[in-house]
Fold:
Amino acid sequence: MNFASDNVYGASPEILKAVMAANTGTCPSYGEDAHTVRLNELLRDVFETDLIAYPVITGSAANALALSALCPPHGVVYSHDGAHVFEDECNGPEFFTGGAKIYPVEGAGGKIDPDALRHAMGRFVRGFDHHPQPSALTVTNATEWGTIYRPDEVRVLTDMAREFQCRTHMDGTRFANAVAGSGCSPADLTWRSGIDAMSLGATKNGALGAELVIFFDRSLADNFLFRRKRAGHTISKLRFLSAQLVAYFEQDHWLDNARHANAMAAKLASGFSGMPGFELVAPCQANEVFVKMPADVAERLRAAGAVFHNWPSGGDNCIRLVTSFAADEGDIDQVLALAADGMQEPRTAVS
Amino acid sequence: MNFASDNVYGASPEILKAVMAANTGTCPSYGEDAHTVRLNELLRDVFETDLIAYPVITGSAANALALSALCPPHGVVYSHDGAHVFEDECNGPEFFTGGAKIYPVEGAGGKIDPDALRHAMGRFVRGFDHHPQPSALTVTNATEWGTIYRPDEVRVLTDMAREFQCRTHMDGTRFANAVAGSGCSPADLTWRSGIDAMSLGATKNGALGAELVIFFDRSLADNFLFRRKRAGHTISKLRFLSAQLVAYFEQDHWLDNARHANAMAAKLASGFSGMPGFELVAPCQANEVFVKMPADVAERLRAAGAVFHNWPSGGDNCIRLVTSFAADEGDIDQVLALAADGMQEPRTAVS
Amino acid sequence: MNFASDNVYGASPEILKAVMAANTGTCPSYGEDAHTVRLNELLRDVFETDLIAYPVITGSAANALALSALCPPHGVVYSHDGAHVFEDECNGPEFFTGGAKIYPVEGAGGKIDPDALRHAMGRFVRGFDHHPQPSALTVTNATEWGTIYRPDEVRVLTDMAREFQCRTHMDGTRFANAVAGSGCSPADLTWRSGIDAMSLGATKNGALGAELVIFFDRSLADNFLFRRKRAGHTISKLRFLSAQLVAYFEQDHWLDNARHANAMAAKLASGFSGMPGFELVAPCQANEVFVKMPADVAERLRAAGAVFHNWPSGGDNCIRLVTSFAADEGDIDQVLALAADGMQEPRTAVS
Amino acid sequence: MNFASDNVYGASPEILKAVMAANTGTCPSYGEDAHTVRLNELLRDVFETDLIAYPVITGSAANALALSALCPPHGVVYSHDGAHVFEDECNGPEFFTGGAKIYPVEGAGGKIDPDALRHAMGRFVRGFDHHPQPSALTVTNATEWGTIYRPDEVRVLTDMAREFQCRTHMDGTRFANAVAGSGCSPADLTWRSGIDAMSLGATKNGALGAELVIFFDRSLADNFLFRRKRAGHTISKLRFLSAQLVAYFEQDHWLDNARHANAMAAKLASGFSGMPGFELVAPCQANEVFVKMPADVAERLRAAGAVFHNWPSGGDNCIRLVTSFAADEGDIDQVLALAADGMQEPRTAVS
Structure:
């Protein structure tokens, strides 16, 4: 009953098998191997467009490297106030961009509010050298609050970005969950909605450790190899990452995994929503449930072995439960039973 | 017959097995798992001292992260002129240190010449704010020229570093080869010879991708977690790296691998050294052979399928051959036979 | 009738005279001259404490250099949302700190709201390596909205900073106006209220170009000389800056200048406040007036030769008028007469 | 008898007078004043070409800002091993470029040796992402050893730079001395010899503090305003720097000053060269004399009040004497008499 994060689980058997299969003979290092070539071909099919993709080891690296290709040191990147790039990467984007400003923008349910974005983008004057220059927008899909931007919502933001001469990035750490949850195509959610570059994660969804930087506008990749090497993210035996990613995208493995994780979250959310004293803090559209529940219920769940984090930015008594590709439905049932069970008994107030 | 690099080979079966074995159940992310804890214990045994160690994905990351802990932005890191940190990391150490100067020092056979180091360290005046400040020394062992520093040689350099108030780092990308080749203990080659921090590589010697930053002086690690995260090198499913490294050090697997690689290189070097027109550019002490050979012989080897790089910094007709843990002795024999064969025939000049 | 900024005026005769007087004979460069020594002594008197001070050429340099001494690259600096360091220095603080985050905090009248600060400081968890670390607070006095923090207001914020293990900085670009306007001593407004370091400006208040970085906690200055030199802010003929600053502080020249500027602003504000259709956006406590006035009045003032900026962040029809040490009272009278004159006539709407 | 540096002297009367004259009325800040406009016009005449120029306060700032426009973070700047940018700016160029490598190249008399440059430039492979990329060449004229590159010497180096796809910069801290000493035109020494951008100093040659960044290729200035502001080098009352520079270039004031300084140095060098036990370390072509003299003579000069630095990089007993625009010929005579006087007496060995 571990709901602490999707990365507390290991790797899927399919992906582990692909790693083992890649361990044959010699091949060129640093990305000129057949697995990486195949990966790029596969991604062009998945996204129905030309693109160039680079595997890296973490989502933070993918984000920081991508943003550094979109924003100069004197620029501004606009993100959601609760975005991973703003609060959970220890100033990594600032480091990689050479000191750009990551500007937090408000918005309900983890989504950037268009009016707030317009206000933020309009604040710094283009060409005025005292002001940092609006340069990039990043949106996270699925969001940090387990919601999903639909293509028209992305488009509103990317159109605004273009109006202010900003390039656009999607943080797709949980992109599989967004695709699975929305039923939209990868293309519709990204470049067809105005996205220039993205980070796409596999680690949380079944890989051992493999993330992607993808450029739909290949001109943005001009200095990417140098940026990547300079940051220590050029991996010698890259075949072992690329092989994971090939297995991830082949035969819809990524979407199968995400569908399962989403379904388990939906089951949790659905179960909770009928219980008195429970309140979903954000609609559950992907694989995360943010819920306020009575403190004693949370205690009881923990006492029974459930692992999850308090989530104070969601308000008092808010907790987060994350489901993964490997989530066990029995665990879900047990959590719901434990929670419901408490409903039937008189509870003593917990301070 | 691939001698291009030790990283064109895959992973050893023992290490791959350990990765598979680590894929059970849930565990905390980002380094609080049992594998990482075990790894630190194991390393304390291997090095016979207290220390703290952090797995990362590349040797360039290990070097840059370690050096950034030893040298401020206004500092100078002294390295060999041919060191990986100086010429092969695309200014990564400069990036991570916030713009420190990596100062190249000459020396034969890949080893820093003590007189040249004294000259270099004495050049910038301590406390004089126009001068960048001498801050760190880095030595590579085994060196980029396949030679090995013995403990007394390391000590001469680290004593000088202390005299100039510099901290000390060892780039141990091929440290296993240095230990195996020298017969010295890990402790004798490092902290007992005055080394404060090191990078230690496993990738070239049988891992899928796993390197270490090790601090013998733990006070240097104070901000390491922040540095690592900010650089995108904090890996969520770290168990999969730590498991590789546990397998690497257990039961001397790292030394067995290195001994084989070294023996294969020694066999090549020994065979070449008796052939007319051949000249070893540096003594073969680890797993690399730098040799000048007649251009037509090199051509013939390539025509027969051998893969290796020209190495112009070794002079005209210099090539480099690297052997790995997985090198096939039959390949070595074949290369030597092909080379010797040419010796017995009249050769036509090759332009 | 130029109210565009206090820096559109030249230098005061007293300060210019001091520069001329400093042009005698030879003296050591880079700060070891008698003028700089004298300046430090004088500042210890002015602030009634030990301190160390360094002249630099711009306020942006003073801010960025000071903040870089207080905040590591993985840190967070909290500033007002409208602070110069956040919006008007083109990411200079981010550059000098090596990529720290400048976190904007709301508050009326240019002053940081304590509740908003507590929320912001509490957001990132101390010691959690995914989060940037709370490191420094900066307050501007007088503020960017022409208001003044009193010592008890500063103390509330610096106490909170200490609670969150943050060091404290005051941006005193217009510190003379704050001292003159509050009637408080320099000491009371700064170190006695918990400030560790400050930037103190003279340029806007009568100098040709001279600003100060002052450390009340001298331990923060440990690497300052290196930081300053590395940023190109170590000035060879420093006597010419220090001489300006000595003249600035001697015989209360700085306060005389500021009192005049403040009085002229107060006269403007007082005059405007009685006029129908006028609204002061912030209380006028220093040398800046932020006022909404009918668009046709602003037009008329401009037509008559008055120079000032629209200030959209103050709302529709908000303009800013800045008065300086050299402001001419006749100009003030004329502006008020022009504004009042329009009050008595029927006005035509201006689009 | 102060020969410590050319910056221990104050400002010339002409330049000080121009500063006073600039102190009239209001004018736009930050470079849109008439003085700065006039300065650019004047420089176009002086250099006989279109260009764009920006005043800054120090030569280190000029160098670092200019180089950051020519070299990306993953690039290499080639400089002389003894260049100011390499050894005397506390890693400023590394800071401003975001971590580029400043690569030291040998050469006699402060001039880059073309063969050594070719070797250095050829070392890193274009397009190979492990290698930092050759990006810029910087030459200092007059050099740090008081010698002067003639146009054909500059051309050899800039041609080589272009061959390796590098842009070119001249550090003209003592450019006036180079023009005066060579008799060549400013244009011939710079853009006509292949220079794209330069730093040009006035501070050492009579200004209070004023240096220039000049772009002959204006496309290189695209982001300059942002770079400058971000570094705290955008000066509000810029008129006071520009006025100095206008006076500097008008009526050949800069060349008159430099001719005097050069003549005084030449007189010193000429006098020394006939004395037994004296040896000029580099030919005296500008305003610096590097001379080995018997230790007791140096002692005697110091005892008589002469101020100068030992210059250990010139060898044992090497000292440096710098003459300025304000050097007194009587001082020169006295130094020569003191030195010669010692020649006639038996000397006791000084340890």
Summary: Chain B has two domains: 11-251, 254-340. DSSP finds 14 helices and eleven strands in chain B.
